């Protein structure tokens, strides 16, 4: 069993932390209110002193206002801004803490605005997604069969991303994990096994990350041809003008001609290039927060590097690049002062040079931004895995490639505490046939298996006392939907899904598969359903993987006696005082009973 170094919290400790953050938030909010009041009084007093100094001259009221009142007011303005940032950060942390409590109880429901994740929106709007999303089938299995993205579902419980881009990155990570080929999963496992810096450390990183604008936009302008050549030409004209001033002191026509040529060349170049100031200010305002985030996280660079996090973003060259951007924007800010702008550009090719240097800086930012975004995506995934594990309930799985399945006391993470039922299972066969009554828990059991196996392969904690399994290609056929647009009936859609599973088994025979099928061939008649199911199951006995099949056909249970590798389990109901009850516990052997007629009768159908 892995040694778990991440400190986990029970519900009582999570609630105690939430109360602590509530007190800090209330205290900071009150401080902010007091500072705003003092700032208002300071501003009114300063203004009053200036007004009084007009009527009572010679008493020094204006000097008190200028050197005491105004600096005090500016200090309070700065203090207010900093306190506002602190209050907003504490507000996010408080919301985070309260969210952890609900997730720990299994009662969390994401806001409606968070919305379901659609394949079309995911695929069309993210280049990152286009690189990772292999086909529609994987997404359908995750979204429909696993019910992964429903409101209050597993994704809502696991996700602690702070941006839409991070959300897409986490979705892509789970999609890649379906195949058992996500290289990031190993890094996430290593992180969870070794991250011992403490909950507060990673919460601080998460809070800083939430202040970062991830959707950076570069204003696209048509490139100016030969811009560098124009800059060199203007500087040559400037050198000629300087030389004329110093070496032709007695010849005003020569000096005038040289200076005029320089002004003309500079003016034409400025018209050709255009103003970059407004776009530069917008870009600098975005990267100012990037620089703030980088400076804060750079202090913990040695810790982050242990886990391969933010290696390029916290490098000194990145911080220097942000500083250069700020400097060039400051240099170009003279465009806001027409007289200064005119004088400087009459003396030097000021704006043209600053604009060209700014272009080089922006091109470097555009080149390095994708790397930084990938590092932040990686950080968002790591933080989601960490907080999901730290809030308690999850355990580190054992991923052993040649291992058989061993699952002890595993449960569905999206179910509330009062509805959670743990089950245990160890593989004694290739095909596990699950029979049972209606509403007894067969479908939920299959979803629970699939979700925990996916979490294991994604490097996340699993919701089990112990979980040992190899990385597999996960496939499923649980909630097949017909498609009127494509003319697919329910049965035909199910056949196509099973064909996809068969093709995957034959395409990569060396890769173990983890397959779950709910109520196989439910869309056809009894005779053909039984015959078809038997043939599919017998084919799977020769395949490399673990197969879980649920069915109401009790005759399928006879396969355990006919073929080695098939093993029966079931769920059953019980009756107490004439009422049907379910314990949702997995039991060995075929189902001994049915309940369809009893349900029809109890609901008054006949």
Short summary:
With 606 residues, the protein is an alpha/beta fold. It has helices spanning 11-55, 61-105, 119-125, 127-132, 136-145, 154-158, 164-177, 183-194, 199-210, 227-247, 252-273, 277-298, 301-306, 316-332, 338-347, 350-390, 442-458, 490-507, 526-540, 559-562, 596-602, and strands spanning 398-399, 406-410, 423-426, 431-436, 466-469, 473-477, 513-517, 545-551, 566-571, 573-576, 579-582, 587-588. The chain folds into 3 domains: 11-105; 122-221 and 276-391, MutS, DNA mismatch repair protein, Chain A, domain 3; 398-602, Rossmann fold (3-Layer(aba) Sandwich), CATH 3.40.50.
What does this structure look like?
- The structure is a single chain.
- This protein is of the alpha/beta class.
- It has three domains: 11-105; 122-221 and 276-391, MutS, DNA mismatch repair protein, Chain A, domain 3; 398-602, P-loop containing nucleotide triphosphate hydrolases (Rossmann fold, 3-Layer(aba) Sandwich), CATH 3.40.50.
- It contains 21 helices and twelve strands.
- The protein has helices at residues 11-55, 61-105, 119-125, 127-132, 136-145, 154-158, 164-177, 183-194, 199-210, 227-247, 252-273, 277-298, 301-306, 316-332, 338-347, 350-390, 442-458, 490-507, 526-540, 559-562, 596-602, and strands spanning 398-399, 406-410, 423-426, 431-436, 466-469, 473-477, 513-517, 545-551, 566-571, 573-576, 579-582, 587-588.
- The strands form three sheets. A six-stranded mixed beta sheet has the order 6-7-8-4-9-12, with helices on both faces. A four-stranded mixed beta sheet has the order 1-5-2-3, covered by helices on one side.
- Strand 6 (473-477), helix 18 and strand 7 form a beta-alpha-beta unit.
- The longest helix is centred in the first third of the chain and has 45 residues, at 11-55.
